[in-house]
Structures are given as structure tokens and as C-alpha cells.
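thought: fold this chain, then report.
action: predict
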Amino acid sequence: MAIGVDTAMPDKIVKRVIENILGEAGQDMPTEDDDEFVETVDRIAFLIGYRTIELCWMTWLVQSE
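observation:
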């Protein structure tokens, strides 16, 4: 991310928000492995038409509310 790569931050806040959203939707998400988490967030971003980095920043904004 620091060098401009469009990817997800597998940190605890991003994981918590994504897990909660998917849980409310009745979906399970692999979180044991950071690589699987990043792939899951990449798929979500692709499906909803956002960049992965945008999705990560949105989680930070949700968390601050």
C-alpha cells in the first residue's frame, strides 16, 4: 500500500468490520490467514465496483462512527 499497490490491510480493525458485515449477510469469511483475508477483500471490492484500498479506508470510517 505504501508504494501504491491496491491491496487490503489485514489489520484488526479492517478484519472486524469486514467480518461483521459478512456475518450480517450470513457469509463466513476466512480470517485465520492474512493472504486469504486479502483475497476475500479483493473479491468483495471487485464485485461491488470499488478499489480494494477504498474498501479498507471505508472500514476505518465505519469504525470511527
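thought: worth noting. The chain has one domain: 12-64.
final: C-alpha cells above.
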